[in-house]
Write a structure and sequence with these properties.
single chain, about 250 residues, alpha+beta, 5'-nucleotidase,  domain 2, 4-stranded mixed beta sheet, 7 helices, 11 strands, globular, 5'-Nucleotdase_C, 5'-Nucleotidase C-terminal domain-containing protein, 5_nucleotidase/apyrase, 5'-Nucleotdase_C_sf
Length: about 250
């Protein structure tokens, strides 16, 4: 073996051995605890920097867009006043985007605040729906609509519009869509939002829709548009428990 080959052999061997060797690193960390309380003096330069943005944001959040003639609370029951309002707004917008939309669907857990009686502000709508969820319209088979109803039956009802659902022993006793019994051979269009269409809140009946249309409009924008539309028509916001979801005890 000549000297050049011998040198290459030893170089390769040393590189191989060094690459197989476990590298050990020592991590040293330390920190200091700073207590934040009323004794901390605000930095006036920071306050001055964001004050214009804070003022602009507060003006928008306090902007009045409508009037609630009654308090609309959430609820964990089969229906709630706020849930019905919420679902009605979804159906209203869904029909604007696609006149063939039959029904709408939300979940109780997605509605995060009650609506007090009186002026409705932009901030109120953000409190009700703080998430970035956007509108989705699903085309579903009659079988999927029935499975959707079964989901609602096992969860004690959810906010809906355009249907009548009767639940007994956590099972579907009756499902009417636009006043007619569900037809397993038919197709239906459902307005909801992307989070639920993607399987959020354990909704598994939307896994294989016939068609799906996603829209950029946020759900809170839909709610604000619905309130503003009614205000323009001289109407206040109100709701009633109309029996759209009933549980037989």
């Amino acid at each position: 073996m000549n000297r050049a080959l011998l040198w290459c052999f030893f170089l390769s061997a040393s590189l191989l051995l060094s690459s197989c060797k476990t590298q050990r690193y020592h991590q040293v960390s330390n920190g200091q605890y700073y207590q934040v309380d009323t004794t901390i003096v605000a930095d006036s330069s920071i306050l001055a920097y964001y004050a214009p943005y804070k003022e602009q944001l507060e003006m928008e959040m306090n902007r009045v867009i409508g009037f609630a003639a009654q308090e609309l609370p959430r609820g964990r029951g089969a229906q709630s006043l706020l849930g019905n309002f919420f679902a009605d707004a979804l159906l209203w917008k869904g029909k604007q985007l696609d006149p063939e939309v039959h029904a709408s669907f939300a979940t109780k857990g997605g509605i995060r605040a009650d609506l007090r009686a009186g002026d409705i502000t932009v901030g109120n709508i953000f409190e009700i729906m703080p998430f970035e969820n956007a509108l989705t319209i699903l085309t579903l088979s009659g079988g999927d609509m029935l499975r959707w109803a079964e989901y609602m039956a096992t969860t004690g009802g959810q906010p809906v519009s355009g249907i009548q659902l009767v639940i007994e022993d956590k099972k579907v006793k009756e499902l009417l869509i636009q006043g007619k019994p569900v037809d397993l051979a038919a197709t239906y269009k459902l307005a909801t939002y992307d989070y639920l269409a993607n399987g959020g809140d354990y909704v598994s009946c939307f896994d294989n829709p016939i068609a799906r249309s996603d829209y950029p409009q946020r759900i809170r924008e839909t709610l604000m548009e619905y309130v503003t539309s009614r205000t323009t028509q001289g109407k206040n916001i109100q709701a009633q428990l109309d029996g759209r979801v009933q549980i037989i005890r």
